[in-house]
Each structure stands twice: as C-alpha cells, then as structure tokens.
Design goal:
The complex is a heterodimer.
Chain A lengths: L2 H15 L9 H9 L11 H35 L16 H7 L13 E4 L8 H16 L3 H5 L2 E9 L6 E8 L18 E7 L4 E6 L6 H9 L3 H9 L3 H5 L3 H13 L11 H13 L15 H12 L3 H6 L2 E5 L7 E7 L1 H10 L6 H12 L1 E6 L6 E7 L19 H4 L2 H9 L9 H14 L19 H16 L3 H7 L2 E7 L4 E7 L10 E6 L5 E6 L6
Antiparallel strand pairs in A: 1-2, 2-3, 3-4, 4-5, 6-7, 7-8, 8-9, 10-11, 11-12, 12-13
Chain B lengths: L7 H27 L2 H18 L9 H18 L23 H11 L3 H12 L4 H8 L3 H22 L5
Classes of the chains: A alpha+beta, B mainly alpha.
C-alpha cells in the first residue's frame, strides 16, 4: 500500500478524533506566567514534630535510597552494556506526592478507583528483594524457553518494582530482558529477532505470574535451540500458530528440517500439508500487499503469456480488465517445483492510482468491491515447457448467488465477468465535475452500482425526491421527537435550542437535524436527530454533550 | 525557525512563535499518546513550559518542531509511565463517542487499533504518517539512527496494512 494512502488514512483517523480541539489563544501567556512562578512556601510545623519526622525519614529514606541506587545501577549497567540510553523512573514511596494525586484525581485520569493506584518504586522491608526476584526471573525463562542462563545474564536487564499506594499487600516485580544493543528498551519493543523476555513476579511470595517472550515470527535459530532444550510442544505450536505463514514462507530446507523434527516427535503434520488451494489462501494476504514492484502483467516472458491466456479462457479476465481492477501478476513467493503465477488484487497499485487522481472514485472505489467477488488466482505451469497444469482460485465469499445482475452475486464466474466491462466502462466516465460536490459524485456512483444489482444497503446514497420527507417536515419530526425525549413541549424545545439546522445526508438517505443553543460562540450542536427521508422515522437522537443517545 | 539565546523578551517572542506554529501539532501528538482531551491539553502545556524553560539550551541542531516533538513525546511517555497509568483500562468504546451522521466509524476503528499498538510503533506512525517527518527528523526525535527508523517504519507499515485488511478499511 502506498505511503500516501496510509498517510491519508491516519490523518483522517486522528483528525476526526481531535476535531474538537480549538487552539488556546492564551497558551503562550499561560506558559510564560507559569514559567515565572516561584515555588510555594512550605508550611511551618512544630520543632518536635520536625525532629521526629526527620529521624523516621532518615531511617526509611536511607533504606529506600540504598534500593534506589541499587536498581538505578542495574539500569545504568544495562544501558552501558547494551550501548543505549534511557531513564530510571522509580521513586521511593515516601517521596510520592499522594496529596497531589488525591487532589488531582478524577475519573478522567483513567483509574476506576484511586485505590487502584500503583507506583514505580523500590522494595521496602518485607518486599521481595531485587537479587531474589532476579534469580526467580532467570529460572522462569530457562524453565519455559530453554534459554541458557549465560545467555540471559548477557542481556540487558531492566527491573521495575511496583507497589500499591493504598494496599501494602499489592506489589510486583517486572523484569525486561533485552539482548539487543543500540536499542532503547523504553522506546523500542520491536519484536523481530531477537525479542525480549518479560517476567512478572509477585512480591513478597516470589510467584511468577507471567513469563513471555515477544516474537511475532518463527525464527529458525531460536526454534532449534528451544527444541534442543526439550520444548517441542512450544516450537510446534509456534510453527502452527501465529507464525504459520512465516513458517510456510521459510526456505524449503529449513521448513523441511522442522517438519522432520515434528514428524519424528509424533506431532500431527496435517496443518503443514497444504493443498494448492490452502497455499493460495495463505498467500492471498501477502499477494494483496505485495509491493516488490515485480508486476508481470505486461511482461513478455515465457509462462506469463500462457498464464494470461488461461485466465481469459477460463474466467474471461483479460489483461485490460485486470488492469482496470488493479490486479497484478506476481510470481508466487512460496518455493515450488512448478512455475506459479498469481493474479491478485493489489492495494499498492490501487493506492498509487488513487493518489494520482484529482479525486479517487469510479474504478478506484469499485476495485475494492470487485476484489471481493473475484478473489485471487494461481496458474501452475510446468517449469520447462510452460504448459498449464492447473488453475487455482481462492475467494472468501461463500454463497455465489444466482442473480442475473452482477452485484447480486458474491462470486463472479466467467458468465458474470463478461458483463464487467459494461460496468467498468461507466465507472471510467465517473469523475468529479466542476462545481460538483463529492456527495453528488457519491450519489452517481451508488446509482450506477445499484443499476448493476448493488444493494441499497451497500450503496445507499441517493438524491432527495419529491416523495421524500422534505426539510420542514424533517425539522418538525425531529423537534417532536426531541420534545418527547426531553419531556418538553416542542415550543419549549425551540426556545431552548433556537438555532435549528437540517441537512440532507445522501449517504444515509436521512435528514440530520441539529439543535444549537443561543450561544453563538459554541460551534457544536447540542442534539442531532436523524430522520429517515423515505418514511420519516426517527433513526436516532444524539446528545452531543454526553456522547450518548 | 532558528531559536537563539537571547534576552527574556526575545525568549517570550520565541515561545509565542512556537505556540502559534506548533500548538495544534503538539496537541495532536499528545492526544495520539494519551487519548484524552484533558490530559492532552495538560501535556501540551507541559511541553511548551519545558520548551520555554529550555529555550536557552536549544542548540539549533534540529528544527523547532522536531525539538518540540521530542519534548512532547517524552512528556506523554512520562505521563503514561506515571502512577495512575500503570494499571488502567484505556479502552475507549465507540459508545462513548458522539454518533454523528458524518462520523467515520472505520476511521475510528483504525485510530483505536493504532492506539493499541506498542509505543514505539505508535511513535513511528504518528511521526511519519501524521506529522509527515522525514526519517532523519524522526531519528532526532527518537534518538535513533535513520536506518533504525527505516527498519521500524517497515514494521509499522506492515502492521498498518494488516490492520486495514483485517478491519476491511480501504482508502477514502
């Protein structure tokens, strides 16, 4: 997928969430004023109390400081060995500003109850000491993963101790072990090899509540070592689980090595014995996002011609039609004894085309519909003589449908695909006319799609007609509905919210009736009522201020 | 913009310039991490306060925006690491959001999935895809080399694609 598309999507997603932000025109002055603030005067207390507190503080602080310095030294040593940098955030319990926290605490801070507060601190008397916790962590990793102790001890260790402010019984160690140099453990949790171990240990009992190693992929070296340590089940499950596609796309020699191990150990190999159909299904995600730039659609190479010919013969998919739908011809990324050419919708092609259009619509919108009805294909050819041995298709849609029109059917076979050019021809003409709004363009697109059998549900945009509820009526309906909700008369509703605005939304074929207060400085409406334009039904009433209906 | 050492008035002028040019970007960065308007505003103010206090130390080794981003990210991470963030549920359900007719639920799903990513993936996504920074600028913000940024970006890109595919979200 093209970066520009990703950028646009991320922008839209974040901008939507932050749309209510209004720059503070006084921010600079506020910051300057705060920057000039002096620290508040400390309250006076009696001398006797001061001395008593001082003695207590000295003894507690001395212990805390010792632990603090000890843990800080562990972090700094790890930073040095790992050739990286970072901070150390633990504070002794007695230095924590509990009063400040309680003053500032509200439900919006995220804690359901303030008693749930735990802080990053140092162990006190009675807590599990660092040295013991460390040994427990090492043992847990060795036991679960078979990692040699010497290897763990060579890693950077980043211990954190957490304690509840309100409940002395709640405390826990968290250990992070990272083998990677030049990586900031606080900022970089990148999981490609090698990853990091995490161990959580209850204090003071020393019970391990969690021991994990973060990795998303199947790493042969790690898997070999773990296997040799006797953790066969772990390796087998990794190969079969989330890492399955990575396992499958490994070099054949490595994959065969592990399959032999699994076989000798008596594991079920059926998850790894893929039919061509299963292979294509596993590859489909990779194919759709493949951006290696090796699109062979128009490459004059042996095998490609034969593959394209059979695609047209069997499915009616010509190279031009596949181009219109942003399909790419790609060599299969999986190792094979045959020449395997895959035809798949490609996000990168569609995104690149979309970013070049003044307003991506027509075919660029349709391609995302078409891919669901077409799926992906693999043409299997003999490597020597390029004879087509088989053609495989993978499609997620299950029930083909029996409608006459194109979009009434989930799966397009040749008979329906031959009708595609009639639709794509119309969509090619669909561009944003001068002065036309994008909503208008959306209406035209949905009208075309419905004419080819698309459902109202999937393509709902339509123009307001004379038979629909008109604006005045929509406002009346919305006002009455709001009055009922607020237990007011309609007249009182309009007194409370004198600014009423109704906009027809083609995408939902509904009226959005918005109620504003008299306050002209308030940009947002207070209530929004959606009224179905077709039948006048109230679809929803939303209280903007509460975020609920 | 070059930020120079200078007298107090000049320092205030520099701050005003920073606020005027970067307030929105800083706020949105903070929101990206904290996912809460009130906290993001607090973090934003804290960021500018730290910047104001450190203006004398700014050495022009990076742009002002890069410098501010670094402060903002570190400020947000401090908040995330702070006491009450340790064991809290930060999931925000769609039910708590205004259900406007123009609300793009798919976009919001994308936003939620991004917020659920580990911090360093979020760093890259927001700096590269939202703040439109170059690899070199990102490296300066995160104190890592551009080649390291490139590797992280590759992973972030892959994750974003997976999210989009899984959620059935397509480009607008």
């Amino acid at each position: 997928m093209h970066d520009d598309v990703l950028r646009r999507l991320v922008h839209h997603a974040v901008d939507q969430r932050t749309a209510s932000f209004t720059p503070n025109p006084f921010l600079a002055q506020q910051v300057i004023a705060k920057g000039k603030e002096t620290k508040p005067m400390k309250k006076k207390i009696t001398l006797g109390l001061v001395l008593a507190l001082l003695l207590l503080l000295i003894s507690v602080t001395a212990l805390a400081l010792t632990h603090l310095e000890e843990l800080k030294a562990v972090w700094e040593d790890s930073y040095e060995r790992m050739n990286t940098y970072g901070g150390f955030y633990a504070v002794p319990m007695e230095e924590f500003d509990l009063k400040g926290f309680e003053e500032d605490y509200t439900a919006s801070t995220g804690l359901e109850r303030k008693e749930d507060l735990v802080i990053n601190t140092v162990p006190q008397e009675g807590d599990l000491p660092y040295e013991e916790a460390y040994l427990i962590a090492i043992a847990a990793i060795t036991e679960k993963f078979g990692t040699p102790e010497s290897e763990i001890e060579a890693m950077g260790v980043y211990p954190e101790f957490y304690k509840s402010v309100y409940n002395d019984d709640v405390s826990e160690w968290e250990f992070y072990f990272s083998p990677r140099t030049n990586v900031n453990i606080e900022e970089d949790n990148t999981y490609p090899p090698p990853g990091e171990y995490r161990v959580y240990i209850e204090s003071p009992l020393g019970e391990v509540t969690y021991c994990g190693w973060y990795l998303d992929e199947f790493f042969p070296d790690y898997a070999k070592r773990t296997w040799e340590a006797g953790k066969h089940e772990y390796v087998y499950e990794r190969a079969k689980g989330n890492a399955f596609s990575d396992f499958f796309l490994m070099e054949t020699e490595q994959r065969e090595y592990f399959l032999q191990l699994f076989d000798e150990a008596g594991f079920d190999l059926s998850p790894f014995q893929q039919t061509d159909e299963a292979l294509l299904e596993n590859l489909s995600f990779t194919l759709e996002f493949y951006d290696g730039g090796e699109n062979l659609m128009h490459a004059d190479l042996p095998g490609i011609r034969e593959a394209l010919a059979v695609m047209e013969e069997k499915y009616g998919l010509t190279p031009d039609l596949m181009d219109d739908l942003y399909y790419a011809a790609l060599p299969s990324p999986a190792a094979s004894d045959t020449l395997d050419i895959c035809f798949s919708f490609n996000y990168d092609l569609a995104a690149r085309a979309g970013s070049e259009l003044p307003y991506p619509y027509g075919l660029n919108a349709f391609c995302h519909v078409a891919r669901k009805h077409l799926g992906s294909f693999m043409v299997i050819l003999d490597k020597d003589n390029f004879q087509v041995q088989n053609v495989i298709r993978h499609i997620d849609a299950k029930n083909p449908g029996t409608g006459e029109k194109l979009l009434e059917n989930s799966v397009w076979e040749k008979e329906l695909i031959l009708k595609l050019p009639a639709l794509t021809g119309q969509l090619k003409q669909l561009t944003l006319a001068e002065g036309e709004s994008t909503m208008e363009l959306g209406i035209r697109y949905d009208e075309i799609m419905r004419s080819f059998g698309g459902s109202m549900e999937e393509f709902p945009s339509r123009r307001l007609t004379a038979h629909d509820v008109q604006q005045d009526q929509a406002i009346q309906i919305a006002t009455a509905a709001l009055a009922e909700k607020l237990r007011l008369s309609p007249g009182d509703v309009l007194l409370a919210y004198p600014q009423v605005q109704a906009t027809y939304v083609p995408g939902t074929a509904a009226w959005s009736v918005q109620f504003f207060t008299e306050d002209q400085t308030r940009a947002e409406y207070i209530y929004e009522t959606l009224v179905d334009a077709q039948n006048g039904n109230v679809l929803s009433i939303f209280d903007y201020t509460q975020g609920n209906g | 913009m070059n930020v120079h050492e200078g007298c107090m008035d000049e320092k205030e002028q520099q701050l005003i310039f920073l606020v005027e040019s970067c307030q929105s970007a800083v706020y949105k960065t903070c929101f990206f991490y904290l996912n809460d308007h009130a906290l993001a505003e607090d973090a934003m103010q804290e960021t500018f306060l730290k910047a104001y206090r450190s203006l004398d130390q700014f050495k022009n080794k990076s742009t002002a925006k890069t410098w501010l981003m670094r402060i903002a990210i570190n400020t947000c991470k401090d908040i995330l690491k702070s006491a009450w963030y340790r064991h809290t549920n930060h999931h925000i359900s769609l039910d708590s959001l205004p259900e406007q007719s123009a609300w793009d639920h798919q976009a919001d799903t994308l936003y939620q999935r991004i917020c659920a990513l580990p911090l360093r993936e979020r760093d890259i996504i927001q700096l590269y895809y939202y703040q439109d920074m170059t690899l070199e600028e990102i490296g300066k913000v995160l104190h890592i080399t551009p080649s390291c940024v490139s590797r992280k970006l590759k992973r972030a890109r892959s994750l974003l694609r997976k999210i989009l595919e899984k959620e059935g979200i397509y480009h607008a």
